[in-house]
Write a structure and sequence with these properties.
about 350 residues; alpha/beta; about 25% strand
């Protein structure tokens, strides 16, 4: 009996999210429309809308067109009811960069910029997060993209040495009363790319990054789900058995004559294991002049009917930011559903 209120609250929150999701995708909607598209009763939708109007998350609009009876009331979602913040770090080339975006609850970017940093560590991130929360007090969630492995909020293998083995999520949660999501950079990028494929969305796809000064990595999507692995190590292609030390691998990646063979082996391995429909290559080490050679070399090993479409994306920033925004919004919207599935 003690579990009944707990479960009832979960169901109520899930129903509330269903109503909000309908309104987020419509300029405005009536209770009848919301009920039809959520499967909830009109009375339930009315109660949820009443509460959302009181908090300001939903706006009550003018009456709609009458079809013989009492004209229906329209409702609209207040996308600026609260914000999210997304930031990611990189150190390709010779400098550290922290890129950030402030977005509303339908993903519209309010502010964005990129900052050059001498060092990126917890103190720097802590100071920056404190400053944006002071500027935007309505931020409810913060997503952080990391060039490395993130397992249960703790950073493992990472291109930012100052963050290796650091429990970033728990440290931030202990200080700030907002939701946090810490995610691998390639997972964010592939998720953003996948969501942008509005037509003929692929069954599976991957992004492979070959950046200067860093080991390569990849992000993978299957059936709309990010492939993370049991310890979120999936996609760490620099650990493939190339038969050389990691030090030698790093050296060969940064030499023109040895770069392409390593790339081709990485792609062939990914094709054989994941069999994706699309692979996007990115990072400063990949050039347009390499693409045709890479494809032809892969075809020497992979039968043509199993070859994915391989493309080059010179700047993946847009996909990265979009993916991080979407994942952060999902943390707010679907948090209870995710918890329920694990029980």
């Amino acid at each position: 009996m003690n579990n009944v209120p707990y479960n009832t609250n979960k169901v109520k929150q899930i129903n509330t999210d269903l109503v909000k999701n309908i309104l987020k995708n419509q300029e405005h909607a009536t209770k009848a429309y919301i009920a039809q598209h959520t499967g909830l009763s009109v009375a339930t939708c009315g109660n949820i809308l009443k509460e959302l109007i009181q908090t300001g998350e939903v706006i009550e609009m003018e009456l709609g067109e009458s079809k013989g009876g009492r004209p229906p009331r329209n409702y609209a979602y207040n996308a600026n009811y609260s914000y999210i913040a997304c930031l990611y770090m990189s150190n390709e080339g010779e400098e550290n960069t922290l890129t950030y975006a402030i977005a509303n609850l339908i993903g519209e970017i309010i502010e964005e910029d990129a900052l050059k940093c001498e060092v990126i560590d917890f103190n720097m991130l802590d100071s920056f997060i404190g400053s944006i929360l002071e500027k935007y007090s309505i931020i409810k969630a913060i997503g952080i993209g990391v060039p490395g492995v993130v397992n249960k909020g703790k950073i493992g293998v990472c291109d930012i040495e100052e963050l290796i083995d650091f429990p970033l999520e728990s440290q931030l949660k202990a200080k700030y009363d907002v939701e946090f999501i810490i995610e691998n950079d390639m997972n964010c990028s592939v998720f953003g790319m996948y969501k942008n494929e509005t037509e003929n969305q692929p069954h599976s796809m991957a992004v492979m990054s070959f950046q200067k000064r860093n080991f390569p990595g990849s992000g993978m999507i299957v059936d709309g789900k990010i492939v993370r692995g049991f310890s979120t190590f999936a996609g760490e292609i620099s650990f493939l058995p190339f038969g050389i030390s990691r030090e030698e691998q790093f050296k060969q990646l940064h030499q023109e004559e040895t770069f392409l063979p390593l790339v081709v082996k990485s792609i062939i391995s990914l094709i054989a294991i994941l069999n994706p429909e699309q692979i996007a290559l990115t990072g400063g080490l990949c050039k347009a002049k390499h693409l045709s050679t890479i494809i032809e070399e892969c075809k020497k090993m992979i039968p043509n009917e199993h070859m994915p479409t391989i493309t080059l994306i010179e700047n993946i920033r847009t996909a990265y930011v979009q993916g991080l925004i979407l994942l952060t919004l999902e943390r707010l919207t679907y948090q209870l559903q995710l918890v329920e599935k694990k029980i």
